[in-house]
Amino acid sequence: MANTFMSRSAIDTYSSVYHQVRFAFDPERAKVWRALCRYLQPWVSREDPLLDLGAGYGEFSRLIQAQEKWALDLNPALIQHWGDGVRPLIQPALDPLPLETRSMGTVFSSNFFEHFTVDEGEQILAEARRVLKPHGRLIVVQPNFRLEPRRYFDDYTHKTAYTDTGFAGLLAACGFRVVHTEPRFTPYSMKSRWPKAEWMVDLYLALPWRPLAGQFLVIAEPDGAPREGGD
Fold it and tell me: Does the global pTM surpass 0.85?
């Protein structure tokens, strides 16, 4: 998605077209994200700032509770969906973040790292580790190639295939310690298989084994922080 050799106007056009072709706005997604935010909130500090990488239409940033919320994306047209409580960072993900070292309690991403090469992912993770507090958490929701190999590259911008195990290895190599994983977290896409009623999403997330799952959840902390579970 990010390309430091593209002009600013070319990057804006590329991002805008992607959202039209692969990721058109759907107000029904907010129902799903309300349930997802309730599920993830125990891992997100309400007292610390949060950064949402590749925020898209900003449902997570808008609905999660945090002391301050930053959303990063390439497309400035998305800001209109984020709400007044979210501070925008419109820039390529490979650019240095204009955030202080050890200032964020949470860094979150959903369907993000597959759009980058492994080397680029390592660069982004290094910057995420820099801005995270020692007890901060990196929360990643990611397509799981092991569960959806046939559809993984239907998105023409996907560059790297990750499984839950493989991504955990990448995190370890980048100075993170995984503290929680769910290999079968959610369906692969909200376009078809997701229930749209909040209570149905709550019920799905409560299942011990989730049918039709195609994405994983991994939560990690900067290596060296004491072990602890959800708040």
Answer: yes
